[in-house]
Amino acid sequence: MWKKLNRISLHIIIGTFFARAATFMTIPFLSIYLTKVKGISAIEAGMIIGISSFVSIFSGFIGGYLSDRFGRKNVMIGSVWLWSLVFIGFAIANDVWLFFLLNALNGICRSFFEPSSRALLSDVTKQEHKLLVFNLRYAAINVAAAIGPLFGLKMGSASSTSAFWLTAFIYALYGLSLWWMSQRETVSSQPKETRVTFWNACTVIVHDKIFLLGMIGITLGVAGYSQFNSTIPQYVSSYTDGVQLFSYLIVVNAITVLIAQYPITRIGKLYSPAVSIALGTITSGIGLCLFGLFHHPLLLVTAMVVFTIGEVMMFTMTDLFVDQIAKPQMKGLYFGAMGFTSIGNAFGPVVGGFLLSFFGVSQGGYLFASLALLSFLGFPFLFYVAYLVKEKKQTVEYSA
Asked: Which InterPro entries does UniProt cross-reference here (predicted)?
């Protein structure tokens, strides 16, 4: 399997693992840290979490365009080094406005790095190996998600700043390794005459009906999924040893992804990526409902498993969906434009924080049933997209 990967792909996947493991030591605990240590209200914490995704709405599109225009590696290196400074800021910040600023920069760094790295993987990978490469990247993220929270729990990420400093150090090293890679490896870039202007790029995106409808559906699914990093940890933290319980739920999430990813991907190949994503919105919504109905820790694990299966159905196929419909000379732009789905991550935590304040932890059934509607609403859009893709025969064969 590994022989199918070139050195650039391998470097990105391994680097993604270490960088994400560092992030998972801190960000999943950020809302708890803000409310328990800094005394910030649930609504303010939700808004701070959401601002990261809010800025990604536009910065992802710009970052993807810049990667097409000026090179994937340059954008990746710059964003990772800035990311390191952001986590240093988290470690020393005290004011609410500063947390807003830092998490906004966190979102910008992520939305510049992500489309650039995915477009680079698409550039350097043979068509028949793309399913493998994208899924290895996703698996690396989820192995990191299994390891990171355990280290974060041991380091007291919900109440201390030591994990922020370690994360900053890891990102600095990752930036250095990317710079080293850029000096040793070359990637053929597209001819300048084929590069589109920013205005033309916007025009192409606006007139791509399949892409726009797909983004709407995915955005609603993302809004439901965003409760994983905002409402769910605040809700679970109200339990006895809630922080520890949430840490274990994160691990369950990661393990479920690793177990379910391969069979779900194999089944998803029989249909289109859009069908898999559509079914994922329904499944993750059901998982949210179960969080409100179940109270025993073991039953919450069951809710997390269902929720995670929906996550896998949505996110393992998103990169393939974009690769399938993107114009060859505009892949960075298309991957970046998927940052518009961060609208879901932006308003999802705010809605979750408001509903949590309104219903309280004692009415979890009403709380999570309301949040599940966000995810359910994405299904009709994505199901229609699957129909359009089939009608236009805009499909690509992938092998695992």
From this structure: MFS (IPR011701), MFS_dom (IPR020846), MFS_trans_sf (IPR036259), Sugar_transporter_CS (IPR005829)
Q: What is the largest CA-CA distance in the chain?
A: 62
Nearest to 110 by CA among 342, 349, 378, 380: 342
User: Is this prediction's pTM over 0.70?
Assistant: yes
Domains 2-185 and 200-398 share a fold: yes
What is the 3 state secondary structure string of the chain? CHHHCCHHHHHHHHHHHHHHHHHHCCHHHHHHHHHHHCCCCHHHHHHHHHHHHHHHHHHHHHHHHHHHHHCHHHHHHHHHHHHHHHHHHHHHCCCHHHHHHHHHHHHHHHHHHHHHHHHHHHHHCCHHHHHHHHHHHHHHHHHHHHHHHHHHHHCCCCCCCHHHHHHHHHHHHHHHHHHHHHHHCCCCCCCHHHCCCHHHHHHHHHCCHHHHHHHHHHHHHHHHHHHHHCHHHHHHCCCCCHHHHHHHHHHHHHHHHHHHHHHHHHHHCCCCHHHHHHHHHHHHHHHHHHHHHCCCHHHHHHHHHHHHHHHHHHHCCHHHHHHHHCCHHHHHHHHHHHHHHHHHHHHHHHHHHHHHHHHCHHHHHHHHHHHHHHHHCHHHHHHHHHHHHHHHCCCCCCCC
Question: Residues 6 or more apart from 132 whose CB is under 8 A from it?
Answer: 1, 4, 399, 400
More confidently predicted of 29 and 80: 80
Q: pLDDT tens digits for 174-233? A: 989 888 887 776 655 444 445 566 777 678 778 888 889 999 999 999 999 988 888 888
Which residue's structure tokens are 């274990």?
248
Query: What does the domain layout of the chain look like in residue ranges?
Result: 2-185, 200-398
Please say whether the beta carbons of 141 and 29 come within 8 A. no
pLDDT, mean over the chain = 82
Q: What is the CATH number of domain 2-185?
A: 1.20.1250.20
Instruction: State the pLDDT at residue 194.
Output: 52
How far is residue 269's CA from residue 397's CA, in Å, rounded to a whole number? 9
Best CA proximity match to 45, nearest among 235, 234, 288: 234
